[in-house]
Design goal:
Structural class: mainly beta
Helix content: under 10%
CATH superfamily of the largest domain: TolB, C-terminal domain
Number of domains: 2
Length: 340
């Protein structure tokens, strides 16, 4: 009975049916009606929709969260206040197509897309003068990487500036910016990684076909891609610009979803699912985080936790100051806790 009731509460939370007024009356209750109170040392920012991935705005005062379900939104979270607001889509959104960089983009996201909008993987590329570039894997009326300009000089705002429509058959997931321009993105549906450039468009990345790709990260010098192999509990480091190709694989002992380079570049955090059942039993799955040395690929498991109501299993992790922040695909909240 307890498991059945927990599953019912979880489903209720994922549909996000409540109103903001509920949270205002009781700050320990999320607008869905689910508890938003801490679980041990773990606390939450609630009233989100499947915040599967996180990106930190330079300065570490703000975090951008994706919304990886129908009706999802791109949210902005204040690191200190733990409050959130919608960045996109919204009534004040601004669109300014950069036709030189994205000549094949047919135009902005369909204004009538509505709750079909779904923001999956994120990557924020730092820019000059507090203006940055945000890449968003988008599912909706089109499968694409959408590109936004993020003005982080005050409270961050975003402007849509372009897109790249995915080739037929691809189903995108993770994305990273490339130092020479363009970006790379994983396609779990086809089991490989692709890159896109202004002049050449989409190209499959050699050597990526057997990586079971999900999340993606890139080395500071741009010479290596790190690919999370969710289905095979592994991480692959794949060289760029080298002939012959170099590839190293390490076992993680859980299914890694997203990868995030630490803000100082010293470690890669892999977050993902443990105790996977067949058929899937989400409430039995665990959240896992590993710290990986990007040079030696040494792996250290630093966190493991059972599923929680409103937050089943972590899909991304990043350390901000003395806190570790976690996103989830199955849930309505972002978790944060003292860094392990």
């Amino acid at each position: 009975m307890q498991v059945t009731r927990l599953f019912f509460l979880l489903v209720a939370g994922l549909t996000v049916l409540g109103s903001v007024g509920v949270a205002e009356q009781n700050p320990t209750v999320a607008p869905s009606g689910l508890p938003c109170s801490p679980v041990g040392d773990i606390q939450f920012v609630c009233d989100l929709v499947s915040p599967e991935d996180l990106a930190v705005v330079p300065g570490s005062e703000w975090v951008i969260a994706s919304g990886n379900r129908a009706g999802g939104r791109i949210h902005l979270i204040h690191v200190n206040d733990k409050t959130s607001s919608v960045l996109f889509p919204g009534g004040d959104q601004i669109e300014r197509l950069d036709n030189d960089t994205y000549p094949s983009c047919p135009g902005p996201i369909d204004a009538n897309e509505g709750d079909a909008f779904n923001a999956h993987g994120l990557y924020l590329k730092p820019g000059q003068g507090g203006v940055h570039t945000l890449y968003v894997v988008h599912h909706g009326n089109r499968e694409s990487v959408e590109v936004f300009e993020v003005d982080g000089r005050s409270i961050p705002t975003i402007v849509w500036v372009g897109c790249a429509i995915a080739p037929d058959g691809l189903g995108l997931n993770g994305v990273v910016a490339l130092p020479e321009g363009g970006f790379a993105a994983t396609s779990p549906r086809t089991g490989d990684v692709w890159e896109w450039h202004t002049g050449s468009g989409w190209m499959q990345i050699p050597g990526s076909q057997d990586t079971a790709p999900n999340g993606l990260e890139i080395s500071a010098d741009g010479e290596s891609l790190y690919i999370a192999g969710w289905a095979e509990e592994k991480l692959t480091r794949l060289s760029r610009n080298k002939n012959p190709l170099e590839k190293q694989v390490v076992d993680l002992g859980f299914r890694p979803d997203n990868l995030r380079m630490s803000l100082d570049g010293s470690v890669i955090f892999a977050a993902g699912h443990g105790n996977i059942q067949n058929p899937r039993a989400p409430l039995q799955e665990t959240s896992n985080i590993a710290a990986i040395n990007p040079h030696t690929l040494a792996v250290e498991r630093i966190f493991q936790h059972p599923a929680m109501v409103g937050f089943v299993a972590a899909t991304t992790a990043i350390q901000i100051g003395n806190e570790m922040w976690l996103g989830t695909h199955r849930g309505e909240r972002v978790a944060y806790m003292p860094a392990p």
